[in-house]
Amino acid sequence: MVRIVINRLWALCCAAVALTIFVPIARTQQPLAGGEAALNSTEINHRNDDYEYEYDAEWPRLNRTLGSVSAVAFDPSGNVVIFHRGRHVWNLLSFDQQNRYLQEKDGPIGESTLLIFHNESGALVGEWGANLFFMPHGLTIDRNNSYWITDVALHQVFKFDLTVSSSNPVMTLGVRFEPGKDHEHFCKPTSVAVLENGDFFVADGYCNGRVNKYSADGRLILSWGKNSFVLTR
């Protein structure tokens, strides 16, 4: 059997404290009657080749314990980037009925919340994000290696250009710790998707149930969801 290291992360358990990557083993299937190959729960069919996956206990190589992992992304070099919550835990005591974060007094997460791993070896090649975030959620890395991040406690969306700064975002949307439903506020935004021309979408997820589209420089273009549709230009 030939081992092939996957350069993608096939499974992530957001509540787990460890990140895993799987290694497929190429194998030949004996066809059953009718020409169909037998597949069990550990096998998938991919481009007419059958693979069996096994857990790689040595990926990633990390000598610390992670908090709840909220997101995983790949940078343009193929490295795996994870976003985790450190010691902060989202539970019934985290927010009030108006979706305001109740644990601001505890301060931001003091450790690096973004860890960058080599996609094959699992070695830690970079880290940042200490003392910036309260309740990490979404992570998107665009083709220019800009990091788009959402924090549901802050009710904000951030764009970071690491060639400029890893502590000060180049763009911030939303009002710090203020949930809302107008076009200046978010309420627990969940994720970002970026188009090739730089325009981007924000899923303003848990409370507002809407999607906002912005120009590359952060101007609102349109918004829809919650039985509403608003075109601003």
- Please give the order of strands in the largest beta sheet: 13-14-15-16-17
| Largest pleated sheet | 5 strands, antiparallel
How many helices? 0
Q: How far apart are the termini? A: 58 Å
The strand count comes to 17
Which regions contain 5 or more consecutive residues with pLDDT less than 50? 1-47
Shape category: globular
The helix/strand order is EEEEEEEEEEEEEEEEE
Question: Structural class of the helices, strands and pairings?
Answer: mainly beta
Would you tell me the overall average pLDDT? 82
Q: Beta fraction of the residues?
A: 35-45%
Cofactor: Zn(2+)
GO molecular function, one term: peptidylamidoglycolate lyase activity
Pfam families: NHL (PF01436)
Organism: Culex pipiens
What descriptive keywords fit this protein?
calcium, mainly beta, peptidylamidoglycolate lyase, disordered N terminus, 4-stranded antiparallel sheet, glycoprotein, 233 residues, zinc, repeat, 5-stranded antiparallel sheet, 17 strands
Give the SSE layout:
Blueprint: E1 2-3, E2 22-27, E3 43-46, E4 49-55, E5 69-74, E6 80-84, E7 114-117, E8 124-128, E9 136-141, E10 146-151, E11 156-161, E12 171-173, E13 191-194, E14 200-204, E15 210-214, E16 220-225, E17 228-231
Antiparallel strand pairs: 1-2, 2-4, 3-4, 5-6, 6-7, 7-8, 9-10, 10-11, 11-12, 13-14, 14-15, 15-16, 16-17
